């Protein structure tokens, strides 16, 4: 019989008790709100939860564990890769999702260690966080042989490690150096059918209030402002003009709800209609490995920085996207970016997140046709959502066309 | 100067392009685990029945390059905008833990091969636990029994390994590459 290391369920539980001045009208309301957060975020939340709970008049139990599955949690906090399936399955409420802040990854080395990649000089195994949330970090250490990696979910072990690549909240002593690994985004959302929903909502409201964010700011970095994130819009903006080709597997076509490729044309316009279930408009869910190929209307050339922005929905979900480019609708298509996480918050009132691509990364000088392919690649038959795969809202040229 | 990741991306793109152009018998990256098709092998064939899926991690990955194999069942998956095929891990059930959904046309397949996010991954014939999120592609050749098979395919994307009985995803390596080798041989 195969035996697995137990999941990091309830690795730590902290009971934070709010004050008793607020009287609750029902027994259920007096029950503690169960907050479930992955290790990187729990370390940041614990100190702030106390004051937020007091202000909200609730008691709180914080469980350090992967938020998916949520078990008996009322409120979950996780990064995009942890939240995607919770939000898209309706287990957690998209409408309640709030970004609390972000945590950058840092490389921890002994003081005075050489510059450059830790892979090159580490004299001991490099500790790195386990689970889906650590995938990018582990892949970034891909040149390290397996024996030189120490993958763990043990916060203490990560903090004790002399060499580590960890979210800043799990960094121990030693010199901290900036890492290129994408920052974790702490998204909090209510569990849809929580019996303590009202209490959990009050707590979330406090956490996301100005005062709550100030308290969290000790550990979380603020989300980038909308002005810094939004693409230049206006008359010059160029979006996908027409569909050249598309494909979804039969399985995905049968089970996904949003399968009109024309929804990927024009400016980003995806919306959450609210209500029970997943009620959206304005995007195509690509299913398992599906794709849509668009005509941008004219040839465009590689410019300085990113050239193409793909808008991918929904908030709090960052399914990866693969992009190919060609000067002909029949191809051949050249790979520009492979499984790029597509969860950068767009701001400016745009519901979708986005990811950017630089033609130069694929050695492409110019193109007109873009093929956008699902990079999540989750087994269709094991789906738990009607929005399986990357959800493409729009494709935009960031430079200009010739 | 391009980063190693960027260089690997370009090499992978070249490999994909070579396959798309019908040059699947050779590989510009390095040695392939699968033999080249014989001179008499014809393109095409029906995807049906038992297959052995074999994956050899890219040479750029710091993990064992011993082929990772799974027993799969292949079948026609009907036509949407393109004809498709489906490969499921054996034994399959309602929930597949390893699934390939691919377009099959012009004597080639191309589509997504994925596992769930289950912490237990999927166990290979070699006893390792494996996690995959990648695009499989390759030319289809007619095997001696008339069925189609892929001898020289590529796999572009995420691959992580762990021991069978303990440990975490990635304990035996994690690698994003565009040029893992893949084959789907009839059995």
Quick rundown:
Chain A is of the alpha+beta class and 402 residues long. Chain A has 10 helices and 24 strands. In chain A, helix 2 packs across helix 7.
Descriptive account of the structure:
The complex is a heterodimer of chains A (402) and B (187). With 402 residues, chain A is of the alpha+beta class. Chain A contains ten helices and 24 strands. Chain A has helices at 27-30, 39-56, 80-88, 118-121, 135-140, 155-160, 197-207, 210-216, 226-229, 250-255, and strands at 13-16, 33-37, 60-64, 75-78, 98-103, 105-109, 126-129, 149-152, 164-167, 175-178, 184-190, 238-239, 242-247, 271-272, 280-281, 284-285, 291-301, 308-313, 320-326, 334-341, 344-345, 353-357, 366-374, 391-397. In chain A, a hairpin with a 7-residue loop joins strand 21 (344-345) and strand 22 (353-357). The longest helix of chain A has 18 residues, at 39-56. Chain A is globular and about 55 Å long. Chain A starts with 12 loop residues before the first strand and ends in a 5-residue tail after the last strand. The longest helix of chain B has 17 residues, at 4-20. Chain B is globular and about 40 Å long. Chain B starts with a helix and ends with a strand. Chains A and B meet through helix 5, strand 8, strand 13, helix 10 and strand 20 of A and helix 1, strand 2, strand 3, strand 4 and strand 5 of B.
Summarize the helices and strands and which ones pair or pack.
The complex is a heterodimer of chains A (402) and B (187).
Chain A: E1 13-16, H1 27-30, E2 33-37, H2 39-56, E3 60-64, E4 75-78, H3 80-88, E5 98-103, E6 105-109, H4 118-121, E7 126-129, H5 135-140, E8 149-152, H6 155-160, E9 164-167, E10 175-178, E11 184-190, H7 197-207, H8 210-216, H9 226-229, E12 238-239, E13 242-247, H10 250-255, E14 271-272, E15 280-281, E16 284-285, E17 291-301, E18 308-313, E19 320-326, E20 334-341, E21 344-345, E22 353-357, E23 366-374, E24 391-397
Parallel strand pairs in A: 2-3, 2-4, 7-8, 7-9
Antiparallel strand pairs in A: 1-3, 4-11, 5-11, 6-9, 6-10, 12-24, 13-17, 14-15, 16-24, 17-23, 18-22, 18-24, 19-20, 19-23, 21-22
Chain B: H1 4-20, E1 49-56, E2 68-79, E3 83-89, E4 98-105, E5 108-115, E6 122-123, E7 129-142, E8 148-162, E9 174-186
Antiparallel strand pairs in B: 1-2, 1-9, 2-3, 3-4, 4-5, 5-7, 6-7, 7-8, 8-9
